[in-house]
Amino acid sequence: xxxxKQENQHANSADSVKKRGRPKCFxxxxxxxxxxMLFWQFGYEGTxxxxxxxxxxxxxxxxxxxxxxKAALFEKCIEYYSEHEVQPAEKxxxxxxxxxxxxxxxxxxSIQHLVQTNKPKGCMVVVATxxxxxxxxxxxEQLKQRRAYTKTKIMDRLAIGVQNSEIExxxxxxxxxxxxxxxxxxxxxxxxxxxxxxxxQRMVSNAMKSWGLLAQGQISIDYELNPQ
Length: 228
Description:
The protein has helices spanning about 5-20, 30-40, 50-55, 60-65, 70-85, 90-95, 100-115, 125, 135-165, 170-190, 195-210, 210-215. It is an all-alpha fold and about 230 residues long. It has two domains: about 10-15 and about 25-80, Homeodomain-like (Arc Repressor Mutant, subunit A, Orthogonal Bundle); about 85-215, Tetracycline Repressor, domain 2 (Orthogonal Bundle).
């Protein structure tokens, strides 16, 4: 039975669960952590209602009565992930005395979370909706917006670098932002494929060597779509 049919089947019974209340032994935070781990490992569509009820040790009506539908639970899990598994980008970026140091700190902190022991590899905000079908495009768009928010925070910090003459122009800052965001998302996939932390650290170290080229105009920021 697919998730949409399960949701229809249990919609009415969820109301009765709300009236009766949850079992006294039920810990909502622990439940969110278990659900988060499933979504993080198998993705939104790869995690079924049956998977969730089994991991949380509750019935489907109890799940709906507590968290709403699967999409609502997923959203809560993303919030839980953001609060407990990663540091806010702006907090790390503000800690760097220069734009380069800020970017380096952010990258090194990020890869620590890509290969944690006893946890799924990669960034949940990147991997959880990579292969969603059309009916779940709204959920995919929500995570896209979260990634865009992080990119904006990086660009904001690098814009300060432009003001401080550390980066030649806003166009160069944008190029730096694109480069390092692409690197970070690529390292998420590499982490899923088994790349070790030491290898990821080497990638960051090598990528930071490109900073001067990208920040100070030592290479052109223009390019041709169809070079001759």
